Amino acid sequence: MLTFDLDAETMWTARDPKNAERPVVLSQGAYGWKVGTGRVLALLKQYGIKATFFIPGLVIRDRWALCEEILAEGHEIAHHSWSHRWIVNLSPEEEREEMDKGIEIIERLTGRKPAGWRSPAAEFSPITMSLLLEKGFRYSSNFFDDDSPYLHRVDNRMTELIEFPFAWVLDDAPFFQYSITLPGRTMQAPSAVCEAWCAEFDTLYAEDRAFTLAMHPQIIGRGSRLVALDRLIRHILEHDNVWFARCDQVAEAIRPALRQAASEQTT
Predict the structure, then answer these.
(1) Mind listing the domains of the chain with CATH numbers?
(2) Does pTM top 0.90 for this prediction?
(3) What is the pLDDT of residue 54?
């Protein structure tokens, strides 16, 4: 599963509202919708790959035509909050509002409620999981505790919520995100990142697991970095029995097997 967090300017405004007054700082996020997403869509189309885009509601509102283009290409749009504010800084009321507003605008854009959720900065509050279950989400992609999808157990009860775990090594930001206003200033060679991702894939493939890669159009959409993603895709395609798919498609395909496995564990 290739996934893309189209955060755009919310990556900066959510951290510090004063960044809204800094046009050069915001331009780093604007690159995602102005250039990066187009490059990503072209690459995915070249290989016939369908992907999942996690998009904050504010970005959907402000870049409606671009989101319609993503949909027209057959990709999934999933929930990534309303404003990309970190959940740990929100009150329960604010977190619910972020959730509800994001659901409403995705439903308005796509005609159906979002199937999946990815939290800004992969953070959960004490009420996040109960909100996901209450709102009927079909999958989450936030946790780092496995290399295979699994069903969440909440309050000692098995749920239907599938987790697609990933890790920082399977995220482009720790390798490439350089900004004087954000933590983690780093910039590595795309070839080194491609090597790491290929090695991760090879291990997971050998163990018959799942490969979930998290990226950001404003980061991976740069020319040299897109070349690295191209090389990774070609490397994966050299293997038999590989399925590139959207997260919602994978969730529904594997749910019966996960349910059966969970049942066998409890008995």
Answers:
(1) 2-266 (3.20.20.370)
(2) yes
(3) 98
